[in-house]
Amino acid sequence: PELCRLVMSPVSNNTLYSFSVIPSVMYRIQCLLLSARLKDQLGPTMQQFAIPALKILEAVTTKECQEEFSQESLETLGDSFLKYVATQHLYGKYKLQHEGTLTKMKKNLISNAALCQLACSNNLVGYIQGEEFNPKGWIIPGLGYDMCGNSKISFLSSNDMHILRKMSVRSKRIADTVEALIGAYLGAAGEQAAFVFLKSLGLDIEFHSNIPLERKIVLKSEKFINVRSLEMILGYEFKDTSLLVEALTHGSYQTAGATACYQRLEFLGDAVLDHLFTIYFYNQYPECTPELLTDLRSASVNNNCYAHAAAKAGLNKHILHSSLQLHGRMAYYFENFKQPFTGPSHGWEAGIGLPKV
């Protein structure tokens, strides 16, 4: 055999080589068609939102596929929006529950197990791309074969065009894919599209982006805080100044006539800030890697960063509390670390361990 040579003139070597990429091209087309089918499967309510099939493909492609794109950035975006929506829903629905109970309820509502169940109920798992493409093991769409190794080959009907391979997918990967799909709709079509997608999956939540919650609290806010001074610091005029009092009230403050402490608003605000930072970095740096996006988010969404910004603005002077221990800790930090508060309040420059309050 080593003395033989194959002659296929007039077919050139370049032409022969071009045929080797056909499986890869057809596989990409197959994946795009499956992504388009996934869009249709989500139902008529989702058809009003224009989202490219390539964006859906990105959302269902894991990093194990070794593609030039993966679901990780979309997952980060979708995760922040999901937490934001769930937080607002629970905050508005359970007005008498404290922060600890609301946090537990949120974890149960949007846990990996809950998202995995939603994905399975809506037949989304089969669309997940979880393995690197292998041209030698690729199955031509429309053909079936015996998984036991027999040579029998049969054509499938057009209604049975599914990938005929078994693939093990962890529940967390399934949950990540749901979050990535949320991020895909959010990034391509906005908050309303992402929320409708959640509802189409069967998640029982309500979301109002423009309607404030009604509060029936009669409180003379000026009795507790300097409203005008705080509004000048924040650059915002409050219609309901009792919110401002509540946001500044520590749990130790037990004066008669005061509103509740800030824990419920902290629960809400934490999710809002996380979502705002995430969507800002996602839109501001579209070319950044998923790892960098996560690092930027982590550097900005942390208690030290928030405390640094609050101290720089002077909000610490308006906190309502009755704790000698807290007063001593705050006095110590502001006495010994005055200099750092004059600089920028970026997360990576806010390394001082300020009191969490």
From TrEMBL:
GO MF terms, alphabetically ordered: metal ion binding; ribonuclease III activity; RNA binding
Gene3D superfamilies: Ribonuclease III domain
Any matching Pfam family: Ribonuclease_3
One BP annotation, GO: siRNA processing
InterPro entries linked to this entry: RNase_III_dom (IPR000999), RNase_III_sf (IPR036389)
Position of the signal peptide: none
Domain RNase III, chain residue ranges per copy: 35-190, 227-322
PROSITE patterns per record: RNASE_3_1, RNASE_3_2
Reported cofactor(s): Mn(2+); Mg(2+)
Keywords: Endonuclease, Hydrolase, Magnesium, Manganese, Metal-binding, Nuclease, RNA-binding
One cellular-component annotation, GO: cytoplasm
PANTHER family: DICER-RELATED, ENDORIBONUCLEASE DICER HOMOLOG 2
Protein name: RNase III domain-containing protein
